[in-house]
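chain below, 279 aa
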Amino acid sequence: MGMAHDWSRYWRSPDRPIEAMHAHFERHVYHRHSHEAYSFGVTETGAQSFTCRGSAHTSAAGMVMTFNPDDPHDGHAANTLGFTYRIIHIAPDLVADALQDATGRRTGLPLFVAPVASDPALATTLRALHVALLDPSATALRRDELLTAAIARIVHRASTKPLPAPTRPTRSTTVAQHARQLLHDRMTDDLSIDDLARSTGTSRYVVYRAFQAEYGLPPSDYHRQLRLRRARTLIAAGTPIIEAASATGFADQSHLTRWFTRYFGLTPGAYRQAAVAKP
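prediction:
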């Protein structure tokens, strides 16, 4: 068997919270992670297997993937042939704007129940938007039209339900939330599970189980993801990669690069180029 050929091309809007990637992966394995944005993908060739919301899923050619913000998932090729896919990350505010009614009132954010859907028409719509985002000759007006149409179709055709109404938090939820706040407050510190336990007044076992149940990630993965997201923001703003690594608690640039690639599917250098590229 020949050498695997993984590649990825990334695009980031210079002025709006929307990003897109076109990639082919045979060997790359995504570490379990989530995005701050909605993520809508379409598999073009092959098949990608992943776990999300406690279940295993496979997205084959022509199928659509829908991830809610902060939906933990992983991903890898289903076989040695790999898979090619396009994915678009859209901030919740943009989704809300696209769904507002004729009076300008926001209709609320959707929650996607199924992370995979077989819908050729929706796949075609997503692909058209993705192609326009990466096309230097596409106008801003054309991109906005396709974005609005794609979001409307996704919400209309995909299985959705309203976001759940807030409920009184359980003890487990409160413990997880307090631990999460400590991770945010001390993002670059080398925290231990005992630090989380002390901050919540519980045992290390209680805080670990509560956090995993609430956020779908172990505290260590969540903490690393916070640092990676911050590093990505710094890199997009023009901070040199070695400085971004130091500012976010990574040992050096190579340490940041290893984890950045496992979470996002491209190197910090490639992301930097996408961040400064003109649309």
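The longest strand covers residues 38-52. The chain has three domains: 7-162, 166-216, 217-279.
thats it, cya
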